Amino acid sequence: MLHVVQYRPLRLITQTSLFSMCLKVVLSRPVAFAQIWKSWFSSRSLVGNKNIILMGPPGAGKTTIGRIVGQKLDCPVIDIDDDVLETTWNMSVSEKLQDVGNEQFLEEEGKALLKFSASGSVISLTGSNPMHAASMQHMKKTGIVVYLDVPTTVIMSRLKSMKVDRIVGQSLGISLKDILQFRKQFYKRWYDIRVLCGGDVAAEVVAEKVLDAVKRYQNSELETFISTRSSRSGRSMEKDCHKYFSDVVTEGLAPDGGLFVPERRLPKFTAGEWQSLIEATYIERAQVILERCIHPADIPASKLAEIIETAYGENFTCSKIAPVRHLAGNQFLLELFHGPTASFKDFALQMVPHIFAYCIPRSCNYLVLVATSGDTGSAVLDGFSRLHDADKQRIAVMNFFPEDGVSPIQKSQMIGCQKENAWSVGVKSDFDFCQTAIKQIFTNSDYTGFLTVEYGTSLAAANSINWARLLPQIVYHASAYLDLVHQAIIPLGSPVDVCIPTGNFGNILAALYAKMMGIPIRKCICASNENNVLTDFIRAGVYDLRGRKLIPTFSPAVDILKSSNLERYLHLISNEDGQLVTQLYNQLENQGHFQLRKDLLEKLQQDLVAGWCSEEDCLAAIHSVYSTTGYILDTHTAVAKVVADRLQDRTCPIIISSTAHYSKFAPAILRALRIAEINQNPLSQLHLLSSYSPLPPVHWGLLETLKKKGNEDHQVCAADMSMLMSCIETLIQNHFM
């Protein structure tokens, strides 16, 4: 076995001479000595006995970056090509490849790596090492594998300039691009950390990024979450109250009634990093963005990749997942309805169940509670019903929805999506009651303790109060911008506006988070229907529920008066002032209103503008767009379109979030299209719409759900807390006992 202790000779220093040197520095420059010692100790503790293993395609710069990292850490640097393979074979790598051919080369390269051993070193792998499973398993045990992720176009340009004419796998009829694309699956299998490397980034910069990524990997305790209602003094005194990502996924709501947010805010991408994602697929973009938001100690990169592939690989009807379509002028539609239940909620809720199943203890049973104003319910039910059978046995979901406050097709969806671990309950009230009831249940420690002791079951939340619900939504806002750049609509760095129909503030908050992470969103336009409490608040800074009653509209998903996620935004713009947030929401709860300070309102209005749309204008917009383009907007997108027309200044593109498929609101759509005869049967309504050959076509998932002749029953209960608690206990007894 080849044991490598050192790649380059180090100057030997005796203990006596080292002591003398240190003493001189201490006496002459004590501050400088402290800094040097801290830097040396930090570097040594960063590596220890572990290796930093650089992996990536040929031309990624592994050798150069490895040498720089080694110099910075003052540790051995080993290049597998030069120091292992060529030494073992006594010939150049290119000669060996030409001599034995592709398959035999990979086998002999793997054997050489299996005999190799080192510790506390920076190791640069070959571009083909990851294609040999046994040798990579051997290497992975010795250290942290860092993937230098360089765009394929950049790699091809580098290899051309380096005059590299042959790499492993290349043969007649197979392009270099195809080989590089094929290899990505192997790189994704092995890495612990990814470092994005754009085309023009200096090796010195990449080396610093490698070191920063390794430090992050080794310090999961730095990525903690706090409540929006926790005070700074309380946080400093109660460090044990900090939560990690896996904690906030399972707990949902903070014990003090606040919402969890990252203590150190979200990471910011450089322009070069966004540049490297322009050519990427949606799934690749999601993987990169979410890796930076979820620490690998909570979900390793390989597991996260598996979850993302499961969520978006086959469950969406469009290969682009979230395509951007030109509507008219400078307006573009971000189509968020290609998932199995035809709304933007699928982006989070095809992922969250798998994240949840991974994060919770295997020995516990969990009941996930969710309140819905329409779209969330079917998305939650569908997502959790797709879990593996073993996970279904320990995870169930109960969905509360306003019995008379959703569209007929939405209700049919929620009833049709019921499975052995997923149930819907209609509540004789509105969404605000359902959402408030769930919050009260979570903060009722006597009741939750009773469920744990009596039934061995814990409660969790799947509404957008759960942090894991928001992260996948950040991805599609970022991806939409990158698509406009990819389509040459705008150059990278040019601003866009976004217009989002919102009631609970989650979707628009995700856009604001994307802006914080470096996407150049100029203004977020909040579009309301006649339940326009958010519009009033954004314009005047007064959140006032006094005398307001919820108005049922054609856009039920935004028929909301209490916007949960607004609390996260207020916490953000108040510089994490949990005491202020607590004061505001206590006042809202007790007096029905609060007013924002002038300085905070000015901050808010730098990010947000708002408008609202009447029912008549909503239907008129649907008719107008269909008449001119043949495209059918759903009612929520029509609300956003009306508001965008009024508020945009046409100096930059505007991306309108199309949050649901029009098929879910067939009666309103048929009315907007001025079709007189409307059959009350939801399936007949979809067939009628389909006869118009609309764009986009009628949603296949809805048709399949409505065609099923399954159980049409669902439980209905009064707007009473004790009744809801009784429903919860009944489900627990039936499913877990």
TrEMBL record:
Membrane spanning stretches: none
N6-(pyridoxal phosphate)lysine, modified sites: K345
Keyword Ribonucleoprotein recorded: no
Cofactor(s) this protein cannot do without: pyridoxal 5'-phosphate
Keywords: Amino-acid biosynthesis, Pyridoxal phosphate
Family indicated by similarity: Belongs to the threonine synthase family.
Name listed for the protein in its UniProt record: THNS1 protein
Gene name tied to this protein: Thnsl1
